[in-house]
Amino acid sequence: MGTSSSRRPDGLVGVMLPRDLPAWDVLTFAQRAEALGFDQIWVVEDLGFRGGLAQAGPVLAATQNIGVGVGILPAGARNVAFAAMELATLAQLFPGRLTAGIGHGMPDWMKQSGAWPASPLTLLREYTTALRLLLRGEPGPVDGQYVQTAGVVLNEIPEIVPPVILGVRRPKSLAIAGQVADGLLLAEPAAPAYIKASMEHAGMVPHTPGTHIVTYDAAVVDDDGDAAIERVRPALTVVSEPAWAAHLDPLTFGQALRAHREKCPDANSAARTMPAEWVRALSIVGTPDQARESIRARHAAGATSVVLIPVGADPSASLGDLARVLPQRDDTP
């Protein structure tokens, strides 16, 4: 099972490898995710934690068939020619199993590292265009504002070129994704209305072959649905912050959520006290049947892969609970 096909008629179900998982648990977590039947595992690259490509290689090597996604690699942090070499190498060694998520990066992180450009949208357009050309064995652009790859051609290219998708959320960035990428990585709570609105901004049509729409959602699965809602709340503090306005606009309760946040002393309080129906919309949560229905709704809205983010102090224990949403695998005796 790679990233290019699915055992499930409606779409893929993945899981995120937590960024702060102890190093000695990383490969065991990935192997267990594969054994439990997840279609994909996604590694993250957040400043101060672990490198995305450095995680992806060992995870691919330690597993057999599970797809591995990398998201999100910030364009300003890596020369595009060398990023293409790294991705092409992984895609050669593990054909059909890799997906690359690219973004302009979180502004604060990129500024801290001295890698925030004057025009992040220009960088994103040039970088993504060049990366996809190079991965196909074609010459990269020569005269960009940020990307110059005159004479660069990869001699070693993968038989199956990995999809390059963009992790963006604002309308102008989404429009660029629709022009130069293979899809979207919505690395935030992805209610169905948000998936549809993001695809519309990108000019992408749901369920189009070759278009990859990946969503990240905090997830808690428990036989006690109410208890699951309470456990997932801490993961939703971010959605009421001003930077997430583009995320809230498509939601029917977006304005109400803003008003709720203004009445609360901080984001933690807002997450603790928001109505349960908002929590259900902004996460994959509840009993196995309830969580499964939330996944189906995201697939129906256009997501090709719904990635579950384990919530709680013990991600390895959460992994088994999350796997309860998966149907029986075709190769299960």
How would you explain this protein's 3D organization?
By secondary structure, the protein is an alpha/beta fold. 41% of the residues lie in helices and 15% in strands. The chain has one domain (12-227, 284-325): Luciferase-like domain (TIM Barrel, Alpha-Beta Barrel). The protein has 14 helices and 9 strands. Helix 2 links the parallel strand 2 and strand 3 (67-74). Helix 1 (26-36) crosses helix 2 (52-62), helix 5 runs parallel beside helix 6 and helix 7 (192-202) packs parallel to helix 13. Residues 1-6 have low confidence and may be disordered.
Tell me which CATH architecture applies here. Alpha-Beta Barrel
Beta-sheet strand percentage? 5-15%
Radius of gyration: 19 Å
* CATH homologous group name: Luciferase-like domain
Span between termini: 17 Å
If helices are DSSP runs of H or I spanning 4 or more residues, what is the number of helices? 14
- Low-confidence residue ranges: 1-6
Return the structural class: alpha/beta
Number of domains: 1
Rounded average pLDDT: 92
Which class in CATH terms?
Answer: Alpha Beta
Topology at a glance:
Blueprint: E1 12-16, H1 26-36, E2 40-43, H2 52-62, E3 67-74, H3 80-93, E4 98-103, H4 107-112, H5 120-135, E5 164-166, H6 171-180, E6 183-186, H7 192-202, E7 212-221, H8 225-232, H9 245-248, H10 254-263, H11 267-273, H12 276-281, E8 284-286, H13 288-301, E9 305-310, H14 315-322
Parallel strand pairs: 1-2, 1-9, 2-3, 3-4, 4-5, 6-7, 7-8, 7-9
Helix pairs in contact: 1-2, 3-5, 5-6, 6-7, 7-13
What is the compact description of this entry?
By secondary structure, the protein is of the alpha/beta class. It has a single domain (12-227, 284-325), classed as Luciferase-like domain (TIM Barrel), CATH 3.20.20.30. It has helices spanning 26-36, 52-62, 80-93, 107-112, 120-135, 171-180, 192-202, 225-232, 245-248, 254-263, 267-273, 276-281, 288-301, 315-322, and strands at 12-16, 40-43, 67-74, 98-103, 164-166, 183-186, 212-221, 284-286, 305-310.
